[in-house]
Amino acid sequence: MGLLTVAVFFVMMFGLGALALAPVRKSSLSIALFVMSLGLGLCTFIIFALLFNALKIPIDWKFFFGFSLIGILYFIYCYRSDFKVKLNKENLLFHVGALVITVFIFFVYHQGAFSYPHLEDDDSWGHATSIKYIQDKKTLLEPDNTYSTFSEVGIFQYIDPYPPSYDALMAVLVQIEGRINWTLKFFNSLLISLSYIFFYFFASHFFGDNKKAFLSTIILAALPAYFSHFIWAISLSLPLYFVAFFGLEKMRKNHSWFIPSAISVAAATIISPTHSFYFGIFLAIYLIGRLISDKSIHLKIWMACLVGGIIPIILLWVPMLIRYKSFSNLLSGIGFASLSGTGDRSYSISDFLLTRSQNMINSPIGLGIAAICLAVLGLILVLSYGKRIFSEEQAWALITIGWLVLTIYAVNSANLPLRLSSFRTWVLLAIPVALLAGYGWDWIMKIKGNVFWIFLVCSFTLLVGYNQIALSTNNNTVSRILPSINPVISIIAIPLLFGIGYIGSLLFKGIGLDIKRVQIIVFSIIIFLLFLTSFSAKYDLNTTPWWYVGSFFYGGQFNQKSYEGYMSLSSLPPGSKIFTLTYRHAPNIIGMDHFTCNYCDEDIKMRSQISNVTNEQLYSWLKNRYDYVTLDADYGFVYGVEKAQSRANEMIASGKFQIVKNNENFILFKVL
């Protein structure tokens, strides 16, 4: 299952990317061009989806696939006589390394996402309902009978006026084989994983150095703060940051990248309201940083960004403003009344230094001591440049510092006058931290004389890492298995650490290892420290089955039996028509690959008056509409336990409904 969808995805995205690259002056083929064509394909898909919707063209996978084939044919035509990929052995090593990271992290996310049957939290079930609607109706506009109704009944939270990019992509993929649950889990994990390879190729152009980009990618992959496999639109938003900045970096030397750059900037601004807003700030810092460093305005780059900003206004925001009649209604429909978030809180130093396997599933926190030490080293090195930081060669450093200042403020803004949804910005903080840490790591590996600092940093990191493990172990057991280090002992240990650094450097010099072996040893040690202090927690979080939260909570209590009942629907044939007597669990039916109409007028009317409908009337209405009907805990929660029991007894006694599955809080009836 899914092989056809995966094949179509890669062909379609590469083809659409090739179509976006059609105006670009022909250059030699490279691995970067092939990989980033996928990213440009995602951007082009988003723009096409909005354009199709505006022109009333169905949102159907066959239309997108047809355009992608045109792009592939044009690509083949352009390189028909010179189809040779330019390779460099050293660069190839880093390219392959980045690809291995991407594949490995995909399997980590994939393992966790498929370790349980449900979709996590209400966000993913909400996306499932919108995806099912787009899959069936092939439009991004909510039905006229529900779009202006600001209540849960019939409302699609993640389309109209919410930017529909993520759900449009998933819906088109679902159309191919029809499995929402699998498609959401698989492709959400894939999109997040692709962000690592996109980051690598962006960083290689940003630094002008593949080695620094590769080291930064390793660090990004290790940071718990950079993505879990949680299903939401941000999974598509962040990968396109790197595609957009890659395009702008290419445009500095080749202005024929204007159209791909404009398309990627436009796409990055219409995915998630919060992170599209953050992208705008990231972009502003980038442009200002380039202006200061280059001492001139690259007018075409600024124009590409301007065009990229105008495209979403024309294709999405003007039509939505006309539809919703006022900015207040528009913002309310998006759910963007403020930049505060439900998980906002103040953070301590330990939240940054120490990583935990028990974390927020949607936006994990924590960076890890090794990564922070490397980032601080990179920052010190950059600041030591003095005025040279304003030179064209060091533009990356100036821009990265700007991003770092922004994200540190955003993460800590919960109690500040201007709040920037602090818990959602940890993933953004990981970007400048990874860039600076990669730069610091590269510096350490270059010079044999850095051995003292290597031993000092490694010893300090091991000390903190051990203490982290000790505290975690002791918290999970009754007795203190491992002795932890208190602050007083830590202060006393500082001179000891310097001594270890000094003795270690003498030993290394005495052994007389050549510089290449030193680099391999240093690389291995840092990898181990990153694993110990960062990645182990990230791996645990993303491979451990996540406990379900959301609609199965009644009055603050989780209803296990109701949950088990709805999860058992996976044994029914996909696409079974199942009616719920109340709306609450309609998204759960859809997310388990079945059908219920949460926007049809007659369904909304039936649910609203269900307590006054007799079983005879219910049967007559269900016949020829639905195959099954559920009676669950929510019916009892809304109308009372006695009425729920009475309804169940009457349905059984009528002989017109047959019990298929049941427990004390859930019954699935087949409509006979």
Oligomer: single chain
How many beta-strand runs?
6
Low-confidence stretches: 150-154, 487-491
State Rg.
Answer: 27 Å
Q: How much helicity do the residues have? A: 55-70%
User: How do the strands line up in the largest sheet?
Assistant: 3-4-6-5
Topology:
Blueprint (H helix, E strand, L loop, with lengths): L2 H18 L10 H24 L6 H18 L10 H25 L7 H17 L27 H13 L2 H28 L2 H13 L11 H18 L6 H11 L4 H22 L4 H26 L2 H8 L14 H5 L15 H15 L11 H17 L14 H21 L4 H25 L11 H25 L3 H29 L9 E2 L2 E2 L1 H8 L10 E3 L5 H6 L9 H8 L6 H8 L5 E5 H7 L1 H14 L2 E7 L2 E6 L1
Parallel strand pairs: 3-4
Antiparallel strand pairs: 1-2, 4-6, 5-6
Helix pairs in contact: 1-2, 1-3, 1-6, 2-6, 2-7, 2-9, 2-10, 2-12, 4-7, 4-8, 4-20, 5-6, 6-7, 7-8, 7-9, 8-17, 9-10, 9-11, 10-12, 11-16, 15-17, 16-17, 17-20, 18-19, 18-20, 25-26
Give structural notes.
By secondary structure, the protein is mostly helical. Among the domains are: 3-353, no CATH class; 553-671. It has helices spanning 3-20, 31-54, 61-78, 89-113, 121-137, 165-177, 180-207, 210-222, 234-251, 258-268, 273-294, 299-324, 327-334, 349-353, 369-383, 395-411, 426-446, 451-475, 487-511, 515-543, 560-567, 586-591, 601-608, 615-622, 633-639, 641-654; strands spanning 553-554, 557-558, 578-580, 628-632, 657-663, 666-671. The chain has a four-stranded mixed β-sheet with strand order 3-4-6-5, sandwiched between helices. Helix 1 (3-20) crosses helix 6 (165-177). The longest helix has 29 residues, at 515-543. The two termini are 31 Å apart. Mean pLDDT is 85; it is low at 150-154 and 487-491.
